[in-house]
Amino acid sequence: MRKVSVELLEFKEQGDDRGHLVVVEGNKDIPFDIKRIFYIYGSSPEVVRGQHANKRSEFVLINVAGNSKVKIDDGKGNEAVFSLNRPHTGIYLPKLIWKDMYDFSADSVLLCLSSEHYDAEEYIRSYDEFIEYIKNEDKVI
Ligand code: TYD
User: Fold this and answer.
1) Nearest to 32 by CA among 65, 56, 63, 68
2) Whose CA is nearest to atom 1 of ligand 1?
C-alpha cells in the first residue's frame, strides 16, 4: 500500500456510548512503518510552522483536536490547501513536499506520524534549495 502522492486518509471511527476511538496502525492505516511521533499544540493563529521539505521522511498529519490548515507544494507547480479538522481524517505527505501548517485553533493538537527518525540533515529549510533539489532529482530519474 505504498503511496507516492498527497492523499487524504479516512480512519474508521469506532464508538459507543463511552465515546470515540480511532486506531491507526503502521503499514495498515498508515502507509509506512511509524518510526516517530510528535505533536504540535499551543501555536497561535498567526504562526506558520513547517516551511520545510524532507528528503526521506513521509508524514501523516492528524488534527486529533481543534483544527489547522496545511498548504502543500510539490515544487513542480502543484499547490493545495487542506483543512485538518476531524480526528478521524489524516493527510499523507510523501517525501519532497514543501509544507506550511497554519491557522491553528487555540485547541489544536496536530499529531504527526513519520516514517523516519529525526535527522536534521534530511530537512530542506530553504525554498530555493528545495526547488533546486527537485530539479536535480528529476534529472536523475
Ligand atoms: P520544526 O521542524 O521547526 O517544527 P515544525 O515542523 O513544526 O515547524 O522543529 C522545531 C524544533 O524541534 C527544531 O529545533 C527541531 C526540533 N525537532 C526535533 O528535535 N525532533 C523532531 O522530530 C522534530 C519534528 C523537531
Assistant:
1) 56
2) 50
Mutate to test the pocket of ligand 1, among 52, 55, 60, 103 (most ligand atoms within 8 A of CB): 52
State pLDDT tens for residues 8-24. Answer: 999 999 999 999 999 99
Block residue for cell numbers 492528524:
62
Q: What is the pTM for the complete model shown?
A: 0.95
50 lines ligand 1 (CB under 6 A): yes
Contact call for residues 97 and 130 (beta carbons, < 8 A): no
Task: Give the model's pLDDT for residue 138.
Answer: 79
**Strand order across the 7-10 sheet:** 7-10, 89-93, 59-65, 109-114, 36-41
Tens of pLDDT, residue by residue over 49-107, are 999 999 999 999 999 999 999 999 999 999 999 999 999 999 999 999 999 999 999 99
Q: How far, in Å, CA of 16 to CA of 25, rounded?
A: 21
59, three cell numbers: 508524514
CB 22 within 8 A of CB 90: no
Ligand 1 neighbourhood includes 15 CB (under 6 angstroms): no
